[in-house]
Each structure stands twice: as structure tokens, then as C-alpha cells.
Design a protein that fits this description.
Layout: E1 9-15, E2 21-27, E3 39-43, H1 48-66, H2 77-129, H3 144-154, E4 161-165, E5 179-180, E6 198-201, E7 205-214, E8 220-228, E9 237-238, E10 242-248, E11 253-256, H4 265-270, H5 278-284
Parallel strand pairs: 5-9
Antiparallel strand pairs: 1-2, 2-3, 4-6, 6-7, 7-8, 8-10, 10-11
């Protein structure tokens, strides 16, 4: 018969009213209904020390067989290197997309804030200076001094202007214009200077306002609003961090420069000037840069 203290036995020690104790042992998982015998052994109190010592010894043997610090689980150097390699490949595949998504979200947030700033300034200015259609605005050939005077009267009091610049260099740029995504190294498009003052306001955004077109009767109708949402910092590319809108003086509203549907990769490839429509597209899309945006 198997020892009641051998491996695989369950031990239960009970005492009765006669100060005897009963040792009940069964095979692990056994049950009387399965046909396996369970034994109930009576013992006098004088043998309890020997039996308990045997139970403790059996427990110690069991623990030694089932757990050993030398058998603790560990990874080999090869396994660690393989895992790190897989993580690196996954990161290389996903990080560019995550960074681009973050940049798009931040760009849309900053552009919405800038647009709201000018829209509110236009409303405030009309409250004090009358309807925009009656403003004494400048024309395409107006001098720097005339354009500056118009800006200081109709716009500057309603913007938190930090600095007014006569040239892009005075506003911190080392370029004379902005670039397009299709020509990233050609920084000579639609900058300010000569007769157009630029300015920095609020959180470092740089902008300028200049005459854009005339009505048939030679009365100014539209003005160009150009916004560089991060100032002189790179990339200084129209459609990426520089966006342009038109101020309709006759109606007192700020709208997209072109039709928002003109900001597509196909149209931009045929005419780079369509990048100027991309600020209006972001606005039309609920101030989001969606997947069809030519980022």
C-alpha cells in the first residue's frame, strides 16, 4: 500500500473528542464515487509529532520538486534581439504615419485659431470703422506708407500685434517668399515686402494683408490674407504651414482663396497656384485635414 505521506496524496488531520486524531488521505482528485479507496487512520496522541513531522517533510520534498530558483524562466540573448528587431520594424512602418497624423491635426487646430482671430478682428473693426464696404482701402499700386496706414487703422487695433515688419527679414525670415510642395526649395512666391507690411501677432503667427483685385469700376473689392501659422519656422510652404484667404470687403467676410475643390493633387500638378486653395479646403472640411488632402 502507498504511504499516506507519499507524493500525490492529500493529507487532512482531524481530532475527535477522545483526543485522538484521524489521518485521512486520498489520491489527488480521487472521490469515493470513482472507486478509489480513501483511508481513515486513527492514532493516539503520542504519535502526532512523528506524523506531523512526516507531513512537513513530504511538503518540503514537494516544494523542492515543483519550484527551484535555478529553473526560473528567462529569455536568451537571441530571443531578445529578435524581439527588438520586430519592434523596430513595426515602429519604422508606423511612426511616419503617426507623426504625419499628429502634424495634420496640429496644423488644422492652429489654422482654425488664426482664421478665427482675423474673423473676429474684422467684426470688431466694422463695429468701430463702419461697414467694410465703405472703408478707404488701398489699391494694388499703393505705397508702403498707405498700406501701413490702412493696416494700422482697420486691423492692428483688433489684433495683438507684436511687431510690424517692412521686410520678411525683419520678421525673422531668411527667405524672400514661400515655397510650394512641388517646389520645396524655391522660396520666392507670394511673400511680403516692398510696399506690403507684414506683422507678427499673438503666439508668433506671421501674416500680411494686401490689395488683391478691383471691381470693374476700379473700386477695391478683395484683399489677400496670408497666414504663416508658425512664423519664420520651417517649412514655410504654401499648403503646409502657410495658408491664404481672401477678404471680401464688399461683403465683410473672409473666404477661401479659390474654390476648395481646387485643392487636389491632380489640379496642383497641373498648376501649382492651386495650393492657395488649400486653406479653404481645410475650412470646408470642418477644420480637418482629411485623407484626400495633398499633404
Amino acid at each position: 500500500m502507498r504511504s499516506p505521506f507519499s507524493e500525490g496524496a492529500t493529507h487532512v488531520v482531524l481530532f475527535n473528542n477522545s483526543c485522538q486524531f484521524l489521518l485521512n488521505y486520498c489520491e489527488v482528485g480521487a472521490h469515493p464515487s470513482s472507486g478509489t479507496m480513501c483511508h481513515l487512520l486513527p492514532h493516539r496522541g503520542e504519535g502526532i509529532k512523528e506524523i506531523l513531522k512526516q507531513v512537513q517533510d513530504d511538503i518540503n520534498i514537494f516544494l523542492k520538486r515543483t519550484y527551484s530558483p535555478r529553473k526560473s524562466v528567462a529569455f536568451t540573448l537571441a530571443e531578445v534581439l529578435i524581439t527588438l528587431g520586430i519592434i523596430g520594424v513595426v515602429a519604422a512602418m508606423t511612426m511616419p504615419s503617426l507623426i504625419a497624423d499628429y502634424q495634420k491635426k496640429q496644423t488644422a487646430i492652429q489654422l482654425k485659431k488664426a482664421y478665427s482671430t482675423f474673423a473676429q478682428a474684422l467684426v470688431s473693426s466694422q463695429y468701430e470703422n463702419g461697414n467694410a464696404s465703405e472703408w478707404n482701402v488701398t489699391e494694388l499700386g499703393s505705397s508702403y506708407d498707405d498700406n501701413l496706414k490702412y493696416f494700422e487703422q482697420c486691423w492692428k487695433p483688433y489684433l495683438k500685434v507684436i511687431k510690424v515688419c517692412k521686410t520678411m527679414k525683419e520678421c525673422g525670415y531668411d527667405i524672400t517668399g514661400y515655397a510650394f510642395l512641388s517646389e520645396k526649395n524655391n522660396y520666392y512666391y507670394y511673400g511680403f515686402g516692398d510696399n506690403i507690411p507684414g506683422f507678427i501677432y499673438g503666439d508668433g503667427t506671421c501674416a500680411y494683408i494686401r490689395p488683391y483685385s478691383l471691381k470693374p469700376d476700379n473700386v477695391p473689392e478683395l484683399q489677400l490674407l496670408s497666414i504663416d501659422i508658425n512664423g519664420a519656422k520651417a517649412p514655410n510652404i504654401i499648403g503646409r504651414d502657410v495658408f491664404q484667404f481672401k477678404i471680401d470687403i464688399s461683403r465683410g467676410v473672409i473666404a477661401g482663396y479659390y474654390d476648395s475643390n481646387d485643392c487636389t493633387r491632380e489640379k496642383i500638378n497641373s498648376n501649382r497656384d492651386y495650393f492657395r486653395a488649400c486653406g479653404g479646403k481645410i475650412m470646408a472640411d470642418g477644420w480637418e485635414i482629411r485623407d484626400d488632402y495633398p499633404w
